Amino acid sequence: MPDYLKARLFEILSLLLKIRRYVTLQELADKLGVSKRTIQHDVERVELWLKECGLENSATLLRKQGLGIRLELKGNAENELEALLSSQSTRGQSFDNYERRLEVAKFLLSSHDDLTLQFLADQFYVSKGVINKDLTWVSSWLKQYGLGITRRQNCGVKICGSEQKRRTAMAGLITLSGKRLSEGQEEQMPLGDAIDVLRLDLKRFYTGLSGKPKADVGEMAKIIHDAEKKYDFYLMDSYYTSLLVHLSIAVERLSGGQSVVDSDAYPESILEYREGEIAKYIAWRMEEAFHICIPNSERSYICIHLMGAELPDPGRQNEMHSSRINTFTRHFTAFVESMVGASFQQDEVLTTALATHIKTSVFRLQSGMAHHMHYTNQVPEKLKGLYQAIWAGSYYYKHFFNVEPGEEEIYSVFLHFVHSLRRRIHRCRTVVLYQCDILRADDVYQRLSMLGDELDIQDIRSWGQRTDALVSDCELIIAVGGELSAKCPVIQVSTPITGKELNQIRDTVLEIRHQAFMKKAEELPIPLTEVLWFRLAHGSIEDVLKTFFDQMVHAGVNGEALSRESLELERDGRALIIRDTALLPLYLPGQSRFRAYGFQLSEQIAVADGRASRLIFLLLRQPDREGDWPEDTYPHFIRGLLALADEKKGPDGNKNP
User: Fold this and answer.
1) What is the pLDDT of residues 410-433, one digit of tens each?
2) HSE of 101, CA atoms in CB hemisphere, 13 A
3) Which of 238, 325, 341, 461 has its CA 20 to 30 A from that of 614?
4) What is the third-level CATH fold of 428-523?
5) Is 1.10.1790.10 the CATH number for 195-316?
């Protein structure tokens, strides 16, 4: 019996144990939030479960017309039943709304046919109203994978989106299934490796669909292991598991006659590389083992996974910096320069590291291997402008590689630029002045050496030996046992110096080191970007989208493209929230110029992973082909919007309807 049924049966038994009187089926249905028809089925299952536990003679359900049902217990049945219910609870066999909704998502992902609300309601013994609420949640969950749900009258519901996105969502669902299985366990699962864990996850995933999974995980793991030995490479754990999951899904889909990966999604030319040779070998072994036919598009999909894992190949070091990657790196670095005012193109370490990173990350993004993680809270306040510039560079990813980076990728590239800044910013010139004995002063000096990578202590002198030239030439003064005023920051510390004082020094040094960079960014002229504003008294993001899309369709914008982009708005990393403003890019065909439409609300609403009362939609041109570098007016357009969102720009030039 599935866990989600057991959970409700145990809840019914717990209620009957507690009430100890006749209770109507409608009363039970109201308490559990399900239909009376569902409770009728559940009562039959309760009796079956009691029989399976050997309690059919000591714990029985009595029925009385007009009164309902009552649990009658004999002998020690009450203690036995309570012990059974307690053991089931501690084993974590519970099923809540969250789990049922994941099951609904599983049914939809595994079917290319329309599923009626009644069919889904019957599967989970709930009402169609409950399923409707579940579908709203599932629709929101699917948006992170670029998928949506379509409803057709008298037909049902189905998922819309590409086969690649569908498989990525299925992989995410299998991962969630495994996590839920291990929740609440104090000790690690006794399964020794990823093969056993995945085998169990797949079994749980396909329970109720096709019964036993067609994919033998152990056999697929052997195929990957043989490929590692044959071609002398090793997949790290996360890439190994990811490839194993996607191969498992591919076998299930192909064995069941389901869709294959779109032939235009990944060029077959990538099979010419070393990873392509490995992908062909894996595909051939899978065909032999599972008696399926794997087309070249599926081979390319396997190749994408291997490329994302960055397999070592000394013979292809120069290829990693191909013309295309170099072109992207050069343009992207120039774009960031124009946004923040600092020079990056002369940093060869940065350009080389960035080209190497992009080569791998693009394939990882295409294969759906990127993680959905949130890093914006780790960005220092003084470097928010740099992070925003990297986020705005997503436009170039879209045009050049037809991928969209999530927060993981944006933050990774941000760190490359941060380290470039650190390489070029000298250590803070510091002088230590003391008004105590030399032993205590030296103790402070030794503790300050812990900040050696950040501080350049040029001198340590007694209070009476200080000179105007010494004080004026340094950037920071550490005063031990005395007070001093100077043009540069002065931090007074005690003896011995405390951890709090060391943190204060570290924060001050970081402020000084970033000051030159921020000064350049602030000195850049702020361009004027025109925004057409609308006002709404209140509403949700759905209300705003409906109003905006109605306006766009009326203006002649492609409605199908708008619907597609509405699914993408909640993609990880797509939206950027600055203070009280959310920037929401939309890639639409036929856009001859950049346009911005803003909505001013009377109160904050939930947007992506934050809240905002101002929403600005950026209408950007969808690339006509892969590798299409966009026009050079984008930096001017986006800088104006970033300044507006950060309240550095006034309302001049921003129209109100």
Assistant:
1) 888 998 888 887 776 666 788 888
2) 15
3) 341
4) Rossmann fold (3.40.50)
5) yes
